[in-house]
C-alpha cells in the first residue's frame, strides 16, 4: 500500500520478457505481478509479447553463423544490458522486419492493433545486417533458452 518498490510501466516492460521466461527472482516476479494486476497497459504488453513469442517459436529453424549473435550484440549501445533485454530488442526488430514483408502485414495487424510502435527506428542501428540474420539471431536465442544453456 505504501508502494515500497512499485514498478513504473517502463521498468515493468523491461522485466516482462524475463518474467515470461521465468528468469526473474521471486521478488522481481512479485513486483511485476503486482504491477500487471493494476496496469492494463502492461497486461496488454505482456499479451503482445506472448503472441510474438508464439510467432517466433513457429518460425522454421535455421542455423546462423556461430558468432552472429556476438557480432550483432556488439553493435548494441549497451552497458551491462541483461541478455533478455537484448532479446526483447531483437524481437522488436524482427517485428519491424516482418512489417516489410508479406507475412509482416498480417503479423503487424495482429500484434499492434492499438499501437503502431516505432520499431523501425531501432532497426536503423542494424541496417548492415540482412533481415534474415536478425531472425535467426532471435531464433538462436530462443533455442539457447530452451536448451537450458
Ligand atoms: Zn504498466
Which structural class do you get from the secondary structure elements? mainly alpha
Rounded to the nearest angstrom, the distance between the terminal CA atoms is: 39 Å
Measured as a percent range, the helix fraction is 55-70%
The low-confidence runs, each spanning 5 or more residues with pLDDT under 50, are: 117-127
Question: Which key features would you list for this structure?
Answer:
single chain; mainly alpha; binds zinc ion; 2 domains; globular; 149 residues; 67% helix
Commentary on this structure:
The protein has 149 residues and is mainly alpha-helical. It folds into two domains: 9-48, no CATH class; 68-147, no CATH class. Helices cover 67% and strands 0% of the residues. It has helices at 9-20, 26-38, 40-57, 68-75, 83-99, 102-111, 119-123, 131-147. α1 runs parallel beside α3 and α1 (9-20) packs across α5. 26% of the residues are buried. Residues 9, 12, 35, 39, 41-42 line the site of zinc ion (ZN).
Explain briefly what this protein structure is.
With 149 residues, the protein is an all-alpha fold. The protein has helices at residues 9-20, 26-38, 40-57, 68-75, 83-99, 102-111, 119-123, 131-147. The chain is globular.
Structural topology:
Blueprint: H1 9-20, H2 26-38, H3 40-57, H4 68-75, H5 83-99, H6 102-111, H7 119-123, H8 131-147
Helix pairs in contact: 1-2, 1-3, 1-5, 2-3, 5-6, 5-8
Zinc ion binds next to helix 1 and helix 3.
Amino acid at each position: 500500500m505504501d508502494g515500497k518498490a512499485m514498478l513504473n510501466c517502463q521498468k515493468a516492460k523491461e522485466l516482462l520478457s524475463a518474467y515470461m521466461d521465468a528468469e526473474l527472482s521471486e521478488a522481481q516476479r512479485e513486483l511485476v505481478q503486482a504491477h500487471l494486476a493494476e496496469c492494463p497497459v502492461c497486461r496488454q504488453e505482456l499479451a503482445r509479447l506472448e503472441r510474438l513469442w508464439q510467432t517466433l517459436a513457429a518460425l522454421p529453424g535455421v542455423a546462423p553463423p556461430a558468432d552472429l549473435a556476438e557480432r550483432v550484440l556488439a553493435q548494441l549501445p549497451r552497458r551491462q544490458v541483461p541478455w533478455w533485454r537484448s532479446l526483447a530488442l531483437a524481437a522488436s526488430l524482427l517485428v519491424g522486419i516482418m512489417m516489410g514483408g508479406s507475412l509482416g502485414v498480417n503479423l503487424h495487424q495482429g500484434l499492434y492493433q492499438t499501437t503502431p510502435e516505432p520499431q523501425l527506428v531501432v532497426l536503423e542501428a542494424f541496417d548492415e545486417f540482412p533481415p534474415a540474420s536478425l531472425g535467426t539471431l532471435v531464433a538462436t536465442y530462443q533455442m539457447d533458452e530452451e536448451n537450458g544453456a
